[in-house]
């Protein structure tokens, strides 16, 4: 009785490894641009959502304050703290400071060169993410030339 051992080796040939690497490279070439477009689309949607939240807060402030909009210099405090009928701010709710707060915090700008800035002002500055017009209650992104995939300026959202 003779015992014979099989000497075949398990493993992959060089050709098989090259084919697998080529397939992975093709999938990566297809997938990476799609993922990066998805990220940009998510930032566009975040900007639209943040603007909707800010605009709703300004509209509610105006409705509760006799049609007056928050002041350009005090908008952050007026939207994130309690106010009285005249718009005066208080950190806590009192018998006269019964309105608000309308926001927990101002959302940071999700796009552009000022990405991450959450300040609100009437004019551009280093930490300003949102440009606010007190006379009309309009708020927009503090971007200048940055555009979305459809070539629309973020500042026109």
Shape: elongated
Task: Give the averaged pLDDT, no decimals.
Answer: 88
Count of individual helical segments: 2
Give the termini separation. 86 Å
Strands in their spatial order, largest beta sheet: 3-4-5
What string gives the helices and strands in order? HHEEEEE
User: Would you report the number of β strands?
Assistant: 5
Q: Summarize the biggest pleated sheet.
A: 3 strands, mixed
Number of domains: 1
pLDDT below 50 for ≥5 consecutive residues: which ranges? none
Q: Fraction of residues in helices? A: 25-40%
Strand content: 5-15%
Rounded to an integer in angstroms, the radius of gyration calculated over CA atoms is 28 Å
- Structural class assignment: alpha+beta
Task: Provide key terms for this protein.
11% strand; alpha+beta; 157 residues; 2 helices; two-stranded antiparallel ribbon
Describe this structure in words.
- The chain has one domain (about 15-155).
- By secondary structure, the protein is of the alpha+beta class.
- It has helices at about 15-65, 75-80; strands at about 80-85, 90, 120, 130-135, 140.
- The relative contact order is 0.12.
- The strands form two sheets. A three-stranded mixed sheet has the order 3-4-5, with helices on one face. It has a two-stranded antiparallel sheet with strand order 1-2.
Question: How would you sum up this structure in a few lines?
Answer:
The chain is of the alpha+beta class.
């Amino acid at each position: 009785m003779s015992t014979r051992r099989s000497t075949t080796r398990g493993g992959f040939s060089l050709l098989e490894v090259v084919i697998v690497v080529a397939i992975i490279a093709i999938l990566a070439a297809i997938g990476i641009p799609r993922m990066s477009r998805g990220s940009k689309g998510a930032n566009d949607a975040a900007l639209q959502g943040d603007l909707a939240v800010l605009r709703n807060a300004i509209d509610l402030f105006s409705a509760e304050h006799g049609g007056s909009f928050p002041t350009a210099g005090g908008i952050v405090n007026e939207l994130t703290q309690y106010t009285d009928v005249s718009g005066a701010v208080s950190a806590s709710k009192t018998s006269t400071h019964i309105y608000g707060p309308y926001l927990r915090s101002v959302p940071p700008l999700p796009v552009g060169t000022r990405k991450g800035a959450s300040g609100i002002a009437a004019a551009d500055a280093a930490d300003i993410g949102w440009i606010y017009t007190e006379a009309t209650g309009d708020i927009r992104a503090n971007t200048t030339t940055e555009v979305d995939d459809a070539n629309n300026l973020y500042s026109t959202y």
